[in-house]
């Protein structure tokens, strides 16, 4: 299996040995029969392999972890009940009081809030290197570097190989949130990044009907994240949700191609509209990192398009958003349905105003998650809303 499109269908899945069922069954069970006392003791001592309790591991969840690890080229992965549970488990599992975490923003507002909030609470120094740059922010105490493969909502890129190199030179673990790109467009581990993270709630699920997160990387790094996140925090993914992600990922390559096609058409249309000041889409030659995007992203430039209105005001954003008909006004992204939101008042309302403005998230900014509908219909909807 060399092609991602084949691996998206088959990786992690085998006909059920008990029944021959082709689709991975939902193992809707809390506990597993341990056998004899000594067999149970061996399982709990880690001297034998097998399932014990679904908070620690579950066959449906394990199939999903194997599929995602395969797609990201990772040795191991651990799934969680949300992307946010994945983020907090990663921090709690790998950082100690006194450590330093450096991030390049903007990040999803919830992640930034989590980093800043948990950092303060747990004695971790959190440094925002968005303006000053990564090289200047790294110190001997830096233990972790955090980036998004396409930033939410401004759709900027970071040179992942360079981020990985700098982090490694300082003995820090590099983390890339690959939610916006998915392994179809970016595979950070191949660039030297240590851990990759997803909110599966978005493109991996793809249908807006399940919440989940996952972290993938080396067995050495995933083990403490699993132990803390599942064993201590208890943020495990439910088997029924794992089933939805397993099913969603099978069509991810096809969906991503449609998202990318629609997003490019939408971005090109917006770019030519007089009511629009700037369009942020890495597939446009006008994007300041178009060359990096061409090098780093494979197979397309993603399904997200963010734009700034010529009149940079909340009232103008409301005028446009409130008139959309095909795009639903909602947070979240990556669904087959098109969604639109106002980041300053929703996804990034948790970020202090000054940091938000420094990251370029203004009141006249609108973020689109372009679904898989026909691009002409999406363009027509935007056309009538912009007026
Ligand atoms: C959003 N984002 O609309 P969950 N990493 C990234 C994300 O975009 C998100 C998470 C992690 C949005 C959610 S805003 C109230 C809704 C890049 C989520 C967190 O915990 O699964 O939501 O993932 O931008």
TrEMBL record:
A Pfam family per the record: Cys_Met_Meta_PP
Keywords from the named record: Pyridoxal phosphate
SUPFAM superfamilies: PLP-dependent transferases (SSF53383)
Region Disordered, residue ranges: 1-20
Cofactor(s), by name: pyridoxal 5'-phosphate
Family: Belongs to the trans-sulfuration enzymes family.
Protein name: Trans-sulfuration enzyme family protein
Organism: Ottowia pentelensis
